[in-house]
Amino acid sequence: MALDKPYADVPGTTIFDAEQSRKGYHLNQFCFSLMKPENRARFKANERAYLDEWPLSEDQKQAVMARDLNRCIALGGNIYFLARIGATDGKSFQQMAGSMTGMTEEEYRAMMVAGGRKIDGNRRLGEDGDAQPHRQPQGAAGRAKIAKGA
Amino acid sequence: MAHITASVYTSHVPAIGVAIDQGKTQEPYWQPLFRGYDASKAWLAANRPDVVILVYNDHATAFSLEVIPTFAIGCAAEFKPADEGWGPRPVPVVKGHAELAAHVAQSVIQEDFDLTIVNRMDVDHGLTVPLSLMCGQPSAWPFAVIPFAVNVVQYPVPSGRRCYHLGQAIRRAVERFDQPLNVQVWGTGGMSHQLQGARAGLINREWDNKFLDRLIADPAGLSVMPHIDYVREGGSEGIELVMWLIGRGAMGPGKVRVAHRFYHVPASNTAVGNLILEAA
């Protein structure tokens, strides 16, 4: 019998459950290794060579090098582990979280200061809130896409 | 005999630690938040415990994916602030209370809660930010701290109901400890926030305040709220709020008095809540 995952219909959200944890074990352990300054230095000196020391899929390595955190999460990454990449790059949690929305850093920060993202329309897939798949990317990038008629 | 006299609930946003450590608490962005904790600090100075059992979660710092215990109790003499990738926070080493910690472990494991006993563990912002918010920047923390780590990172996390019952078991354990200690239990994390995906930045002010209302007046009812409600309404990382139910369970069945309540948006990505409950 399939496991009950009532969280599968929450838009723009991936729950790091046992299945994601299994997929992302090595990816997250790579991230964890960046807690040590000597590993951060080796990773920065040659990202590809450092990643090749880990049994990651090519997709996972590409997602890390592109700093595509949404892709990293889809491939089993967990945000608290991925934050070690951000720390290595000198990025804050807010910069990392914002990068996953398509908004610029300023746009995301302004949204938070104004009270954060609204819950209405963002509870379930199929509603019309700003976190829904048909409204990505957000911010100026999204408006440009609409203007182009894409 | 030891007694649990009060419980404190607070968010533990890492950016708050950075603001304190870098002297930014009076900047316009941060000032309203820290002003909200002035009364909490004054209350703590007037109601100083001997020991705080500090319920928090490790954020992929002490526990990698090699091992993540659902509940872990720190039984060591001391715990060092962790290097989370930015260098360790410049805060005092946390002094434990090994005797009480071992006593609590012995008691609640025999009440069917499977705690992992930890004798070496660095503590991350989840534990040190609440201390900084409540104590400021002392040269040594003014009480012993028993770190009590709960897995809220790798799903499924423990249910609110289990956390509430665990808090009750902790209370029974403390009351059987044969030293006259004043003990507080702190529940930390939350409130609404989401750090990932297209829904990052979610804040649900109405739901957060309802959570505070129910934590005060209807904790048993609140404790059966399913995980999906936390995720859907409070964001994927809002699930940390199950930890507050451990503190609430530890207050026992009697009436409580609200000594302080504060709510503020935002701190970085997060809604900040702070509540202090005393035995009435």
In brief, what are we looking at here?
The complex is a heterodimer of chains A (150) and B (280). Chain A has 150 residues and is mainly α.
Structure, described:
The complex is a heterodimer of chains A (about 150) and B (about 280). Chain A contains nine helices and no strands. By secondary structure, chain A is mostly helical. The mean pLDDT of chain A is about 95. Helices cover about 35% and strands about 20% of the residues of chain B. In chain B, the strands form two sheets. An eight-stranded mixed beta sheet of chain B has the order 6-3-7-2-8-1-10-9, with helices on both faces. A two-stranded antiparallel ribbon of chain B has the order 4-5. In chain B, a hairpin with a 2-residue loop joins strand 9 (about 255-265) and strand 10 (about 270-280). In chain B, helix 1 crosses helix 5 (about 125-135) and helix 4 (about 100-110) packs across helix 6 (about 160-175). The radius of gyration of chain B is 17 Å and the shape is globular. Chains A and B meet through helix 1, helix 5, helix 6, helix 7 and helix 8 of A and helix 1 and helix 9 of B.
